[in-house]
Design brief:
single chain, 109 residues, mainly alpha, Arc Repressor Mutant, subunit A, two-stranded antiparallel ribbon, 5 helices, 2 strands, elongated
Length: 109
């Protein structure tokens, strides 16, 4: 995959995670496992409607998936998208490390 395609694929994930409420939802789902919207809103000041909208953004980015269990929808983290995001960050880190090494070599000449 080219760098351009990689960044295009990663952009929606990082945009979705850029909101603190959505980041907290992903963290909670990752820690507590599949949860309903009712469970996700317990002990928070966020309404069910707001949580639903945030989950829809996360789902469009591929970060969470909804599973029907009877009349209830349970939300789960899509670990593959998080792995892809981590791989992208590692790739960017490697590129910056290499660029800094080239700069240091140039300056030390």
């Amino acid at each position: 995959m080219s760098r351009r395609n990689s960044s295009v694929n990663a952009a929606p994930v990082f945009a979705a995670l850029g909101d603190e409420t959505r980041l907290a939802l992903v963290a909670r789902l990752g820690h507590d496992g599949p949860l309903s919207i009712a469970r996700l809103t317990e002990e928070t000041r966020v309404t069910r409607q707001a949580v639903t909208k945030h989950l829809e953004v996360l789902a469009r980015a591929g970060l969470v998936l909804a599973q029907r269990t009877g009349r209830e929808r349970l939300w789960v983290v899509n670990p593959q998208k998080l792995h892809d995001a981590r791989r992208y960050l590692e790739q960017m880190s490697k590129q910056w490390d290499e660029a800094l090494e080239r700069l240091a070599a140039f300056v030390e000449r």
